[in-house]
């Protein structure tokens, strides 16, 4: 398992639910590429309403059902690993927004990890 604590970089890719890469959802391709690159993790979040560069509002409200709701793919890992992954996005993200933000990882643990792990400040987590 990847160990990740302290300073990190958060990569967020904002795109539309209907965006595809080779006939499959683009968000899924990004997650699979992140996994293959050995990044610490990736999560996909589906928005209920939003707009982007096109200025079209996409919403999940019943009267105006959208098939292109906002999607955010969030990846957190060390700065060198995230920056090394960016060229893979250049090939597949043609529309949308890609952002990078500094962050601090307080706890990164999977199922079955030791529950007595300490964080970056020496505090014991139960």
From TrEMBL:
Highest taxon in the source lineage: Bacteria
Gene3D superfamilies: 3.30.70.120
Family label: Belongs to the UPF0166 family.
PANTHER family in UniProt: UPF0166 PROTEIN TM_0021
UniProt protein name: Uncharacterized protein
Source species of the chain: Streptomyces variegatus
